Amino acid sequence: MTFLSRRRFLQLSSLAALSAHAVEPFGRKGVPRLRLSLAAYSFREYFKDATHKQKLEIERTLDMAGFIDYCAEQGCDGAELTSYYFPKDVTREQLRAIQRHAFLRGVSISGTSVGNNFARAKGPELDKEIADTKRWIDNAAVLGAPHIRVFAGAPPKGTDLAEAKRNCIAALEECAAYAGEHGIFLGIENHGGIVAEPEQLMEIVKAVKSPWLGINLDTGNFHTADPYADLAKCAPYAVNVQVKVEMKPAGAKENVPADLPQLMQILRDANYQGWVALEYEAAEDPYKAVPAWLAKMKPLLAGAAVQGESLFDGKTLKGWKATDFGSGGEIKVEDGKLIIGMGEPLSGINLAGEPPARMNYEISLEAMKLTGDDFFCALTVPVGKNCGTLVLGGWGGALVGFSSIDDLDASENSTTQFKKFDKDKWYRIRMRVTPAKIVVWIDDEQWINVDIDGKKVSMRPGEIELSQPLGVATFQTASALRNITFRKL
User: Fold this and answer.
1) Which domain covers residue 97, as residue numbers?
2) Is residue 6 part of a domain?
3) What distance in Å separates the CA atoms of residue 223 and residue 110, rounded to the nearest whole number?
4) Per-residue model confidence (pLDDT) at position 213
């Protein structure tokens, strides 16, 4: 049985009080809703009105009306109309004509974008960046676009990082206030410069403290050691998402294919509700590649299950064995459930062979407390060469935590929380293990999100060590398990 010291309880209470004053991510209620859009930037070489240099020697006939037609033909709900492909001095009449055309084709204008640099030194150049952004806020209002992508930018020569951040924050505050008057969100993109890493990006978003500013989350723009973990940090602040089909983590010599199921799961974990735009940048002709990628995205956005390897067939104990605790309860399969009988004190099961992976994976299961008043699911998993245990229902039935981190167990480290677990009720549990983090969800609500980079992860000393490398244990409690799956990331 785990134990929570009074000192630790008071520490946690103090931390909770302090965190109430912190800037919070968007508090979206309900279930995730992901809507498919396509970014005009995907066809950047084909627009006849492009304002940037184009590389291919081809005939360019595509305009915004033609792009909207393409989105409709591909079954996209939305079209992201990148500002670079409008006529240079686009008029309100032209914008209204595009809005009308999109409506008649049944396509929503999911957003637009600005190419700006708010990290410039104060003066005429920064003033122009702000004025151009406000002009496109006006254009977005005419189009009926709810969102504009903006950049933070990189500091020019002679401007230090601290000054660049201050200038960017001030410019964003001014533009976000203007955008809010029009009911339009600004999304600052994770696009290098002064926001190359998630901490830099969120620092600026939080400093602005505008209800009309969030993150335009580009899935291909973090070139860090663990881009997926960094995207997960930012996802709760997203107001728009742009999906790239390739990524380039730190140290990679070339781009690697993106794991679309994992990207969609990150958005669902953050309870994201909004547009997910394919922004195609890979080498293949977009007219050939984009339809195939949209076809892959549609079922994922619609909520199709991310498949994993089943570890329990619901009929037999094949692949499992009783843990040799000495006084464990009966282990059996009954009505599709794997039953762990009450032990004195411990009872449990172990995977008979090696786990499918020891790092970069998700494991999920459903667990139910049958009798007893202590932990009904202590899930031991591999964390690289070591192992650790997720404890659910410890310390008399309510403790949630992970043992052990830096030799502190589930009742003494930063993962310590409390939740009432009812008997005869199924709880959906999912745990993701990467080199950077351990993240745990209970019934799709995130309960643990702990950084483990540079920290020691180990087992709590004692009989629970027999649960290694993958097992489930109970303490003077009987439980039932089902739907045990394992998915490599």
Assistant:
1) 29-301
2) no
3) 26
4) 97
